[in-house]
Amino acid sequence: MICLWECFFYKYLGIYCPGCGGTRMVKALFRLDFYQAFRYNPFIFCCLIFCIIYLVINIILKLLGKKLIIPKERDFIIFTILIISYFLIRNIPLFDFLIPTEV
Q: What is the dihedral of CA 101, 76, 47, 56, to 10 degrees?
């Protein structure tokens, strides 16, 4: 597989970043292969689902003339903590199922 860029963390440190497998996940989504997309990067896959739900809810609220849901600062802090946690957990051998993989 030809890759236009390589992950700095994996190339130089030998560890997987929270985004490793993200490009392959997007390619799998374009093929409508949701299972494989989840296997490439479950964190980004779940975040994508939540973003789609958030957008749909806000579109409906906008059409109904109601107040939109706007993320607060604490939401970004929680998201940052989740990203860092995923980064750490993904590189523990006990959780090797989180490594981007082929089915």
A: -170
